[in-house]
Design the sequence.
């Protein structure tokens, strides 16, 4: 039987999920109300009344409520600048008013634009019940949309480092070819230690490691080629494997260059 459930507390929401196997937590509903979730989530558990909307920056650490919409995060005066760039990847304001941070994570790696950046920042999640889990582990443990436990807050600390994001689309506002994010602590940081994540690969989101070995002399041109040879792409309607690998090399190289500039 389909139900629309309105818990008054986090505990009630978790209990409702236990009592209704297959029910889905409802954030903004962008993904849930899309035809893609056929056959899943006959019952919905609204998160609207749970006040998951905190926006906090303390000692350089950010704590963001999972119920914040993309636009609410953008409108926050202390929003972390690279996060603003990633939020703007969702180019429609109507969608930004609807989509939530928790929903972007819950919808899974294939769809989300924020995940490469949050992974590059080594974000972790505060779950209902107080457990803390690295975002990377949440995505590994619950790869299918809607399977994961309730996320209350997302936390990250950029420290002294700098992050950059880039997205490539087929056309303005069109299908996303890839999203890349890089975090570096210093301009001389070896690329093996930088956190480099690319969404849109055959693995969903791929962490690029082993770049130093593939680089040789270290010019930007070499970096583009090294990234193109490491990233696992396949051809589809968004472009050939060769094009996607090449453009990924350019995007990651741009991010690395901008990080190094910012950290001078
Ligand atoms: C037409 C279309 C265009 C899109 N464009 C973009 C885009 O440009 N960029 C982008 O990043 N994404 C895009 N998406 C993907 C998706 O809509 C977004 O990822 C969005 O952020 C989902 O947020 P929501 O709050 O609407 O999620 P919902 O649809 O409410 O939920 C998505 C999933 O997350 C789960 N969930 C929701 N909140 C939580 C929580 N607090 N804890 C645990 N699980 C939770 C739900 O149960 C569900 O499985 C698009 C989707 C569609 C249909």
Sequence:
């Amino acid at each position: 039987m389909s139900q629309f459930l309105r818990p008054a507390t986090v505990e009630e929401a978790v209990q409702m999920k236990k009592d209704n196997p297959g029910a889905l937590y409802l954030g903004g509903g962008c993904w849930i109300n899309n035809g893609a979730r056929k056959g899943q989530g006959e019952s919905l558990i609204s998160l609207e009344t749970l006040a998951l909307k905190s926006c906090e920056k303390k000692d350089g650490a950010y704590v963001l409520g999972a119920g914040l919409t993309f636009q609410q995060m953008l409108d926050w005066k202390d929003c972390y600048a690279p996060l603003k760039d990633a939020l703007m990847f969702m180019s429609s304001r109507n969608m930004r008013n609807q989509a939530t941070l928790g929903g972007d994570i819950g919808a899974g790696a294939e769809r989300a634009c924020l995940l490469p950046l949050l992974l590059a920042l080594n974000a972790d999640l505060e779950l209902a019940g107080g457990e803390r889990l690295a975002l990377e582990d949440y995505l590994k443990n619950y790869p299918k949309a809607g399977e994961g436990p309730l996320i209350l807050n997302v936390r990250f600390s950029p420290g002294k480092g700098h992050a950059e994001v880039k997205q490539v689309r087929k056309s303005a506002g069109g299908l996303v070819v890839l999203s890349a994010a890089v975090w570096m602590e210093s301009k001389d940081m070896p690329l093996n230690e930088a956190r480099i994540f690319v969404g849109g690969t055959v693995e969903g989101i791929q962490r690029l490691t082993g770049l130093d070995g593939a680089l040789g002399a270290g010019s930007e041109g070499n970096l583009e080629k090294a990234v193109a040879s490491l990233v696992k792409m396949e051809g589809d309607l968004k472009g050939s494997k060769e094009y996607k690998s090449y453009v990924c090399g350019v995007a990651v190289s741009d991010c690395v260059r901008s990080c190094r500039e910012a950290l001078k």
